[in-house]
Amino acid sequence: MNLKGKKIKLHDNALRDGMHSVSHQFSLDDMVRMAVALDEAGMPLIEVTHGDGLGGSSVNYGFGKHTNREYLEAVVPKMKNAKISALLLPGLGTVDDLEMAAGCGISTIRVATHCTEADVSEQHIQKAREYGLDTVGFLMMAHMTSPEALLEQAKKMVDYGANCIYATDSAGYLLPDDVTDRIGALREGLSNDIEIGFHGHHNMAMGISNSLAAIEAGAVRIDGSVAGFGAGAGNTPLEVMVAVCNRMGIETGVDVDKIMDVAEDIALPLMPTPTRIDRDSLTLGYAGVYSSFLLHAKRAEKNHGVPAREILMALGEMGAVGGQEDMIEDVALDIKKKSA
Amino acid sequence: MAINCAMIGSGNIGTDLMAKLQRSPNLNPVWMVGIDSESDGLLKAREAGLKTTHEGVDGLIPHIEEDNIQIAFDATSAYVHGENNRKLQEKGVLVIDLTPAAIGPFCVPPVNLKEHVGEQEMNVNMVTCGGQATIPMVAAVSQVQPVEYGEIVATVASKSAGPGTRKNIDEFTRTTARAVEEIGGAKKGKAIIILNPAEPPLIMRDTVHCLTETEPDQKAITESVHAMIKEVQKYVPGYKLKNGPIFDGNRVSVFLEVEGLGDYLPKYAGNLDIMTAAGTRTAEMFAEEIENGTLTLTKLT
Predict the structure, then answer these.
(1) Among B237, B106, B235, B98, which Cα is nearest to B162's?
(2) Interface contact B260, partner A, CB < 8 A
(3) Distance (Å, rounded) from C-alpha A39 to C-alpha B5?
(4) Do B131 and B196 meet the contact criterion of CB atoms below 8 Å apart?
(5) Which helix (H) or strand (E) holds A297?
(6) What does the alpha-carbon distance between residue A179 and residue A78 come to, in Å, rounded to a whole number?
(7) Sign of CA pseudo-dihedral A291, A292, A295, A300
(8) 3-class DSSP state of A87
């Protein structure tokens, strides 16, 4: 694989996807310290919100320690070069939340839908363009549809006004060839002024390999998170990604020593338990289940005595999509009833 | 004597509603209004012998007097409801709003239908499908003790969510959240909607989380929830308590499944049924009022 001379933009998700690892409990100080350190390391784009984005704070997904407004107001003014992004899932967050985030000074909004449901993003993408934001269509659980169907959904988001489209491997299920097919279909089918991105999860340890496959197929934005902070077994660990990119001659603009230090000195001490591939997070990748379900399933195991792995497998079989965290307890109760 | 009705909007909701009205003892569906002459809804309406127009509400207005249309159901979109409502009210037609526009008072039949009697209202809003499915449960809890926060999660099959629902997704969450407060009785409300494309399509699922102000009275809440389930089942037989209520500290959670009658879309689309059945139930109450003279329709100009 020769990727020498390719230029990519890394997008750190530790302060958004990483919120899943801490049940959305980062303090404002945690957020600011990590964002400032990432900025100093040269990270160009950093996402900051509740793990489920704007409007995410809830019984269903967990209440955030602070509101999204408080996090954004704390972090945005501290940035020297890095830009801040926010995530919005239509059906959960609204254009009112988008307006709030735009007012806080975000540069980028990522409007996220299930990979077959892009047409719920019209209101939000249009509004984001009116605000002049860098507007990203974020197609989640991209393994659940074909590359051709993914392209059709991407075209809708581009029609609404998105200037960048992501194939999002929310379950950490995709293997490198699957990534090549999806990113390739998007690159070939969308006009050249539309950027393509890839968001990986490390549940099958494919974060780095999949990201390289994505770059080879035409992606220029790559998500990950420092120390792999993120849902499930985490996102593509960015300090590793930067090191690999340096060896391969891919330009990221991020200082490898500095980002290693952010991972080791700031991010890792904030993890209540290590974000790693255990039997439950591996099951997410293996069965194609939304990574954010992990801690909820572990909690259901504790409360109802049903193994998390069994719950996750059942959710995979029923075709649960992102956001259906409410089904975790329901499935646990069903399994418990059956075995009673 | 049945009251003559018109359905505005020939999508999933409007077409399912037609089947419900055809079975109603005191409502008579006469007109179906669409914007595409080839739409499946208009086709079905013509087959059923209804009058149709594909020129929107303007195609209906000239016929209101001659066909004595007294009740209209708007199943278009929140964006056009205001204008539709204005035109219909000028003709003295009572409007049942099935969009999330919510310009009139909310109606969730098992909770507050009776409060609408004698109010001389000319527009009532049916909240949303998720609201109809979940607000009775929030009310069942808040009737026992104060609910600080009510949150509902509605998951519907992708195939049952038409273009109107998709374009109105923000209106869905806002309107439902407001009705969780105003009709459900929660001090603060939140609503979440999820579309799931699984094949075969999944039956509508709804989860209701309430945070009570003080320790929940488990026995009283459980009884109240079961009693409310029976109330909803009177007009939506496929409304089912799947799990719960479960109690975790001050959290009360109820897991519901709503199976439809399969009138227009197959049975998985309980979200259509609960909306159209609630709209029909509400219109039947108003029809009784019109017949017995407690409600006189007036032209608003």
Answers:
(1) B98
(2) no
(3) 63
(4) no
(5) helix A293-304
(6) 35
(7) negative
(8) strand
Reported residue count of chain A is 340
Among B40, B1, B6, smallest CA distance to B293 is for: B1
Helix, coil or strand: residue B56: coil
- Type and span of the H or E element at A335: helix A326-339
Question: How many secondary structure helices (H) and strands (E) does chain A include?
Answer: 14, 8
| Both tokens assigned to B153 | 């999660």
pTM of the model: 0.95
Distance CA B43, CA B30 (A): 14
* pLDDT, one tens digit for every residue, chain B (301 residues): 799 999 999 999 999 999 999 999 999 999 999 999 999 999 999 999 999 999 999 999 999 999 999 999 999 998 899 999 999 999 999 999 999 999 999 999 999 998 988 888 899 999 999 999 999 999 999 999 999 999 999 999 999 998 888 988 999 999 999 999 999 999 999 999 999 999 999 999 999 999 999 999 999 999 999 999 999 999 999 999 999 999 999 999 999 999 999 999 899 999 999 999 999 999 999 999 998 888 888 887 6
- Cα B170 off chain centre by: 17
State the DSSP code for A270: G
The residue of B194, B210, B248 whose CB has the most chain A CBs within 10 angstroms, and thus the best one to mutate to test that interface, is B194
Chain B residues in contact with A96 (beta carbon < 8 A): 170, 174
Closest by CA position to A259, among listed A237, A230, A290? A237
CA atoms of B69 and B33, how far apart (whole Å): 13
Report phi then psi at B153, rounded to 5: -125, 115
- The first and second tokens of residue A324, run together, are 């259906």
Pairing of strands B204-212, B251-258: antiparallel
Which of B135, B26, B115, B126 has the alpha carbon at shortest distance from B73? B126
Active site residue A20: yes
SS3 call for B156: strand
Distance between CA atoms of residues B4 and A51, nearest Å = 51
What is the distance between the alpha carbons of residues A61 and A185, in angstroms, rounded to a whole number? 33
Query: A247 is written with which tokens?
Result: 């060896």
Which residues of chain A are at the B interface, by a Cβ-Cβ cutoff of 8 Å?
A: 58-60, 90-92, 94-96, 114, 116-117, 119-120, 122-124, 144, 303, 318-321, 323-324, 326-327, 329-330, 333-334
Residues of B in contact with A327 (CB under 8 A): 155, 205, 207
ipTM metric = 0.96
